[in-house]
Amino acid sequence: MTLQFPQASEDKRALEEGEAFTPRFDANGLVTAVVTDAGDGVLLMVAHMNAEALALTIETGIAHYWSRSRGSLWKKGETSGNFQHVVEIRTDCDQDAVWLRVNVTGHEATCHTGRRSCFYRTVGYKNGMATLSADGSAPLFDTDETYHKKS
Amino acid sequence: MTLQFPQASEDKRALEEGEAFTPRFDANGLVTAVVTDAGDGVLLMVAHMNAEALALTIETGIAHYWSRSRGSLWKKGETSGNFQHVVEIRTDCDQDAVWLRVNVTGHEATCHTGRRSCFYRTVGYKNGMATLSADGSAPLFDTDETYHKKS
């Protein structure tokens, strides 16, 4: 019953200007998903979706991804309660990426470190070296308790 | 003279909480780059960077990418004049993606279709089919003239 996606057109104009959503999955069967907060637009995370994750996201309105590290479908928030409710999905010109604008439930945290966003460090450049500086954002939930209690 | 990046640590804590920027390039030598407007936060594009593109971006403050379709370094804006001046670079928890907040010069357009953003279509779901709707954003420059005049 899962939504199926038609094969992507090889016609550039159809891909860029057409009304058919024909995601261009890469060699691993994935598209890139960029996830921002529907409220203030902050970038929360970057992840990947296979066809099943993308279809489930569209059908249920709850973000699903493909976990490359675990090699499995990943309903974001299933452990932490921090589900992502999708307000809008967009795709880009060549349809190999999607943009999800979401509202996060639970602790309003997206990162597995407990922070609101995965992008909590800025890149600096000093004396020919690239460095990172934390922006001071703190964990919004106890990740040890949330993730380690499960066995 | 180009900035070199140290090998990424296998220690998860160093990667997530450390102060060394050690990007985790994938099997193709790329990290994902998410690009937003530094002014209003709108998502402009998603692209990829190899080590050289990332180093040049950090060193020059102008966004460079790796064009997967052309297989070459890509100084964004070289043809159109729509350069991206980098206000801030962030990386995510596992350092396999970067977030660039930029100011776009020239026509203030990022998409090769002439539009401000590559994400000009929303995904809808009707009668078991996923469809696209244009958001009405129009080209900000004459792409035929800009791209086709060059031979």
Plain-language structure description:
Two copies of one chain form a homodimer. By secondary structure, the first copy, chain A, is α+β, with helices and mostly antiparallel strands. Chain A has a domain at 12-113: Phosphoribosyl-AMP cyclohydrolase (Ubiquitin-like (UB roll), Roll), CATH 3.10.20. Chain A has helices spanning 12-17, 51-60, 143-148, and strands at 31-37, 43-49, 64-67, 72-75, 84-91, 97-104, 121-126, 129-134. In chain A, strands 2-1-6-5 form a four-stranded mixed sheet. In chain A, strands 3-4 form a two-stranded antiparallel sheet. The longest helix of chain A is centred in the middle third of the chain and has 10 residues, at 51-60. Chain A is globular, with a radius of gyration of 17 Å. The interface between A and B is large, with 45 and 45 residues.
Structure described in brief:
2 copies of one chain form a homodimer. With 151 residues, the first copy, chain A, is α+β, with helices and mostly antiparallel strands. Chain A has a domain of 102 residues: Roll (Ubiquitin-like (UB roll)), CATH 3.10.20.
Quaternary state reads homodimer
State the total count of DSSP E strands of chain A. 8
Walk across the major sheet of chain A and give the strand order.
Answer: 2-1-6-5
- CATH class category name of the domain at 12-113 in chain A: Alpha Beta
List the helices and strands and how they pair.
Two copies of one chain form a homodimer.
Chain A: H1 12-17, E1 31-37, E2 43-49, H2 51-60, E3 64-67, E4 72-75, E5 84-91, E6 97-104, E7 121-126, E8 129-134, H3 143-148
Subunit structure (chains A, B): Homodimer.
Protein name (chains A, B): Phosphoribosyl-AMP cyclohydrolase
InterPro entries (chains A, B): PRA-CH, PRib_AMP_CycHydrolase_dom, PRib_AMP_CycHydrolase_sf
